[in-house]
Amino acid sequence: MTASILIKGATLPDGTTTDVLVQDGTVTELGTLATKAERTIEADGLRLLPGLVDLHTHLREPGREDAETVLTGSRAAAVGGYTAVLAMANTSPVTDTAEAAERVLDLGRAAGLVDVQPVGAVTKGLAGEELAELGLMARSRAKVRVFSDDGRCVHDPRVMRRALEYVKAFGGVVSQHSQDPSLAGPTACCHEGELSGQLGLPGWPGVAEEIIVARDVMLARHTSSRVHVAHVSTAGSVEVVRWAKAQGIDVTAEVTPHHLLLTTDLLTGYDPTFKVNPPLRPDEDVQALRAALADGTIDAVATDHAPHARHDKEHAFVDAAFGMLGLETALPVVTTVMVENGLLDWAGVARVMSASPARIAGLDGAHGRPIAVGEPANLTLVDPAAKVVVDRAASVSLSRNNPWHDHLLTGRVVATLLRGTPTVLEGALA
Amino acid sequence: MTRHLLSIDDLSTADIEQIFTTAAEMHDVQQREVKKLPALRGRTVINLFFEDSTRTRSSFEIAGKWLSADVINLSAKGSSASKGESLRDTVLTVTAMGVDGLVVRHGASGAAEQISRWIDVPVINAGDGTHEHPTQALLDGYTLTRKLGSLEGKHVAIVGDLTHSRVFRSNIKCLAKLGATVTAVAPPTLMPAGVGDWSRTAGFATSYDLDAVLPEADAVMMLRVQRERMSGGFFPTAREYTVGYGLTRDRLAVLKPGTPILHPGPMNRGLEISADAADAIDSVVLDQVSAGVAVRMSVLYHLLAGEETK
User: Fold this and answer.
1) Does residue B76 register a pLDDT over 90?
2) What are the backbone angles phi and psi of residue A30, rounded to the nearest 5°?
3) Residue A158 has what pLDDT?
4) Would you call B192 and A198 a contact, using CB atoms and an 8 Å cutoff?
5) Of A23, A171, B28, B308, which residue has the fewest beta carbons closer than 10 angstroms?
6) Of A196, A311, A315, the CB nearest to B193
7) How large is the angle between the packed helices B166-177 and B134-148, nearest 10 degrees?
8) A317-to-A90, A259, B47, B123 alpha-carbon distances in Å
9) What domain range includes position A42?
10) Is position A67 within any domain?
11) B131 in A contact zone (CB under 8 Å)
């Protein structure tokens, strides 16, 4: 039994304003309510969204608990308005067995702030050679449905084909990190283009992503399976996905908040804070990604939250770790880039940050639901007009590799409810 | 003048001219029996080399010593990442010993710039990956100025493995500041990424055809081509490279008389430069080496002599 909560005067994604009564983890009444509840949240001028779902989070536990743990990552997720996150498999050890997946699930339950859904590795040890025990992970308590070698590409077309075929047995999906390793090798650390030429940094050309996306949609067609393109970063990939969807191929795609706003010219000072994989691209790509998210070619926003200990970023640029924080800033970035520019309304935000990712991950029984009587009370309350200057020191993540430090963003998560229990109130952990 | 020398971007044309003027004075000192000047007496300069180098390290060492600085060579070869120590920790450790200037060579582009943000002593970039090698460009510009007078309107051909060359990237900037025009010559696989846009904004020309460029050149700078590039598929064979882009004996004949031939070394004789060209009367390869000491003395003097001793 959880305390009853009355959210007063919230504006739903569709623009209607209502009171929302939450009891025992469920939305029980909507309308103008005179009901008394144990807690009242004033939501005048605030947007109430279904709890956000992140398809792409790195929680670093087990293995790098100095960078993030399931608990600290869950805190960051809750503060960011998330009620479910998919924890990527590239931990140490790798999540490539049922036992490893259940361990992550249990750590998530113990933290109790968001539903932590493990992603399983496609191949043993992420080595790209032999399939991991996909079926056992699917049958485990963790009910793994999303498989990814993220951080590495399932490069061998034979292995990718078999993975796509095999996961059909249990409704799984392969989330591909699209990077041809022979075109974007181990030293490739930034977008290949004029700036990489001037800076003398080994580049990672857009085509290294695009040819894998193109190959994978053809494999998805051939196998009648489902493929998900992780962190799309180029206009060319968008064109391929758009074409594939028009052909009826079962493909979905995600974009990160950073690829919607940050561009490759931030690398001018060789600051590894901005080193990320796939790399920040030029503005033409950014514009194409925004348009694709607005028109539905790209289904979801996913953070690729990638915490790193400070010393792993204090190497020379090519030696420094890839990745940046994202959970706490995703909603403000999407508000700033998509809502303020008129590219998405709030129903669109609910779609790309909650309903679509929940559907892709197979979590749509509990997450990404409409806000209606009888639905689970996984809810995020947002102040859509708040202006916030991001301060990396204020993060609840263990890490500080925050590319948004000092950025002025619009939109602030005020409260998050996981099955009716507040995890965040007044913008801070409850 | 600039606090650090990380890139030619840190210098104005006036700065470069001042460095050259001082270098000429230092050059005269080199001819004396007693070469030491007291300018940096009591100062400690560390040559922090993360990458092997003989000539650049020796050149900085001699330059520092002739200015009476205490020069310490520290080899930190091997990526600090592989040793488990961050670059920042390595650099803070070295500077904590009490140094007045750091000369840094690193195999990674941008390393000198990153280091300059972590410490409060002047940093001189002695080559960072495939990014820049500003003192090399300064000594090249100085050498050319002594041969040709003003470089205003002079045409310099830079030929070779441009994509992997920090010498190229610094020279493009330095020669532009000195008023020269540059044509960058390489096969398409050895042109830097995005060179089309870059050359348009920076105002240099590019060509795949060395034979078309050489007759118009007032100076030719040949860059080293590493044989291991062949395994990366950048060109098929050394023989084919030489036929297309080597400064062969035949090509010497099409140069205008008195056209200086530069090479930053070490030379691959028979690959990018023939013995005839390397040893030609117009070859200034050894002048570059001696100019290197003078220019580095000048740079050390301008960056460190005004600094408070730590």
Assistant:
1) no
2) -125, 160
3) 98
4) yes
5) B308
6) A196
7) 50
8) 22, 19, 21, 17
9) 5-47+376-397+405-429
10) yes
11) yes
- pLDDT tens digits, one per residue of B85-101: 899 999 999 999 999 99
- Here the tokens at position A411 are 């939109």
Of residues A91, A95, A22, the one with CA closest to residue A62: A91
Helix (H) or strand (E) holding B90: helix B87-95
Instruction: Using a CB–CB cutoff of 8 Å, tell me whether B30 touches chain A.
Output: no
What is the C-alpha to C-alpha distance for residues B251 and B238, in angstroms, rounded to an integer? 17
Closest to A66 in 3D by CA, of A247, A311, A346, A337: A311
Residue stretches of chain A with pLDDT short of 70? 1
- The C-alpha atoms of residue A289 and residue A231 are separated, in whole angstroms, by 10
Q: Give CA–CA dist B153/B78, Å, rounded.
A: 43
Q: Are residues A350 and A385 in the same domain?
A: no
Calpha distance B4→A175 (Å, rounded)? 46
Torsion of CA A62, A67, A69, A73, to 10 degrees: -130
Contact between A199 and B131 using a beta-carbon 8 Å cutoff? yes
Catalytic residues of B: 55-56, 83, 105, 133
Q: Chain A to chain B, count of Cβ pairs less than 8 Å apart?
A: 87
Chain-chain contact of B113 with A269 (C-beta, under 8 angstroms): yes
Residues A35 and A57 in one domain: no
Q: Which residues contact B172 (CB under 8 A, 6 or more apart)?
A: B158, B182, B184, B202, B204
Amino acid residing at A66: D
Question: Which residues make Cβ contacts (< 8 Å) with residue A239, sequence separation at least 6?
Answer: none
Residues counted in chain B: 310
Structure tokens at B28: 């005269």
Q: Residues A396, A429: contact at Cβ < 8 Å?
A: yes
Q: Which residue of B has its CA nearest to A315?
A: B87
**What band does B310 get if pLDDT is binned at 50, 70 and 90?**
very low
Selecting from A200, A312, A317 the residue whose C-beta is nearest the C-beta of B166 gives A200
Q: Retrieve residue A175's tokens.
A: 């989330």
- B193 phi/psi in degrees, rounded to 5: -55, 140
In B, minimum Cα distance to A183 occurs at B232
> How many C-beta neighbours within 10 Å does residue B258 have?
11
Query: Active site residue: A150, A304, A312, A383, which one?
Result: A304
Q: Is A158 contained in some domain?
A: yes
Residue of B nearest to A268 (CA): B110
Q: How far is B181 from chain A (nearest CA, A)?
A: 18
CB A167 within 8 A of CB A147: yes
Gap between the Cα atoms of B284 and B220, Å rounded? 10
Instruction: Flag whether pLDDT at B308 surpasses 70.
Output: no
Q: What residue of B is the nearest CA neighbor of A267?
A: B110
* A406 annotated active-site: no
Average pLDDT of B99-117? 97
What does the block give as tokens for B6? 């990380």
Where do the domains of chain B lie, and which CATH numbers do they carry?
8-133+289-304 (3.40.50.1370), 135-288 (3.40.50.1370)
